[in-house]
Amino acid sequence: MIKKLLARDTAETHRVATPLELLFDLSFVVAVAQAAASLHHAVSENHVGAGLLAFCMAFFALWLPWLNFTWFASAFDNDDTLYRIITMVQIAGVLVVAAGIPAVFEHQDYRIVVGGYIVIRLAMVAHWMRAARDNPAHRACAHRYAGGIAVMQVLWVLWLFVPPSLAVGLWVLGMLAELLIPAWAERTTATTWHPHHIAERHGLFTLIVLGESILAATLAFQKGFDSGVNLISLAVASLTIVFSVWWIYFEAPSHLHNLKKAFLWGYAHFFILGSIAALGAGLAASVDYDLHLSHAPGTTVAAFTTVPLAVFFLCVWYVQDCHDQTGIRKYLLPLGSLAVLAATFGPAPIHVTAGIALVLCVATRLVQPADQHVAV
Q1: Would you list the DSSP string of 106-132?
Q2: Cα angle vertex 269, ends 263, 274, to 5°?
Q3: How far is residue 286's CA from residue 162's CA, in Å, rounded to a whole number?
């Protein structure tokens, strides 16, 4: 059955993620796992610069389509037949991106990833055109989204043919242009996204990415157990770090007061989610190092755990309304970030980092304001 794709009420009660949204998220499990595993191998092989660049570019091709669809669905999801079909086309595009990630890391070949990305984004154009047709009040906004996304897909095809010396610079410009489309489109009429729904969707995706970090670490630990090397302390330290990421992220509620705050909050999640995925790769690379399977220096391997964790702490601190915090709580996560970065250059960096993360978890709970409610 085909229905009109009408804007939803921002104050709608009991708004939660739908089964289709959960299926959409599930498609990213494979893609995020590919990116994390490829970064893990790049670090262990000491191809740090190329691996990190490939990871950032591949992860952006996953994160931005997820972000755009999530906010669109929060405003217009009607779950009719056509909406489901278009969304399933997007899911197929995500799997194409996942299939192309190894080629990005191994051969700097972006054709498959770009092809899958274009499939996802053109399906997004179809969503926006439906919204434009059925919502006169949001027509200008929807047309801007659709037009901007469509133009960018043409530019991404052209990007595949630019000289390698210009590829990174032009990719950064393209990334910025993609990020500016929502700000430009929403200047006409803001879409009717639901604050609680958006917070829940980001929380669920954070759990998915965190799950991939757990999987990456678990599979790496198996190498140690199979070889007879005692990695129990490293396993405990790694799990402590992963648990601390969950603890810190969900310790404070999300404050989506207005559109500007929502944009900054949403875009900060590129670094939050990317750092979590990179953290899983770093933990796996640490196991390789302890098993003498890594070609990278110890400091480099440690940095792929400590730096992502420090970035995570700072970004979460920012999205939790850092300017409104008072007392010691305002400085906990920044100080924790500095301590974690310093641990990179000391003995047993993963174990020390785990201890710092554990202290931060306890401290954030102890200094939590009396009226603070934990985020859902």
Answers
A1: HH---HHHHHHHHHHHHHHHHHHHHHH
A2: 150
A3: 36
Residues contacting 136, CB < 8 A, separation 6+: none
Rounded CA-CA distance 204/199 in Å is 9
Instruction: Give φ, ψ of 138 to 5 degrees.
Output: -110, 10
Confidence (pLDDT) at 302: 96
The DSSP secondary structure of 64-104, one letter per residue, reads HHHHHHHHHHHHH----HHHHHHHHHHHHHHHHHHHHHHHH
| Gap between the Cα atoms of 123 and 219, Å rounded | 35
Is the CB of residue 220 less than 8 Å from the CB of residue 287?
A: yes
Query: What's the token pair of residue 279?
Result: 């953290």
**Amino acid code (one letter) for 284:** A
Q: For the chain, which residues score pLDDT lower than 70? A: 216-217, 220-221, 224, 228-230, 253, 255, 257, 321-324, 368-376
The confidence score (pLDDT) of residue 228 equals 66
Instruction: Tell me if 26 sits within 8 A of 210, measured CB to CB.
Output: no
